Amino acid sequence: MIRILLLAWVGLTAPALSAAAAQDDAVTLYRSGDFARAEQIAVTASDAGSKTLAAQAVLAQLMSGALADLPEGERRQVARRAQSHARSALDIDPDHAPAHLRLAAAYGYEGRYVAPLRAFMMRLPQRGRDHIEQAMALEPENPWGPAMLGAWHFEVARRGGEGRLGSDLQAAFTHYRAAVAMDGVEPAIPYHFALALVAKDPVAHRAEIDALLAQVAAHPAEAAFDQTAQTLGASLASMLQADPVAAQLEAIARLES
What we know:
about 260 residues, globular, Serine Threonine Protein Phosphatase 5, Tetratricopeptide repeat
């Protein structure tokens, strides 16, 4: 289920901003694609929403593929930094559903950068699922909940074998389909579902893949993260059209980067 040099932690030289102003600035920077600066500002705030945004800014770099050229050890440290921000948010508000989702995603990314058996021994997928389920209970209308549960089933089955920890490929697709049909779905969700289907079997799932990538392309994309999902979706569609086997290999590579 997403490459940049690790950030240097520097203090802000501008006069201290109010919490609301700092959060507004961080959101603006995040939407513009300046994820590093968004993280730097958001992490200085003391509310759960800002700490969650800091985690999201880190994860956006992983999800977008911006860190693909970094060694796995460095990407793992990036994922752990996202975990730290999300835990800080939950220390402030244990019922903040978006923070549970960001922590689950950060566990998932760390799990990519260690051997499957080690990830299981560290309980990374187990803890990830717990936080996804907590988020879904707290905020059932958020499409990221079922999308991430779908990704969880798919990745655990792909890496550890179907049935490991209760993973089920049909459950993965069921949760993903529920997510892409919900209100407020962002283009990254159908893109990642399409990526999973291409990795699984680009021929058998071709009609659904095409529909999902069309959904990605049709979404109004004002924020940089949404635009990145559309760019990735368009490149995947082009590869699929030219060579389904090469597209499958690329999809697997993206899932592991």
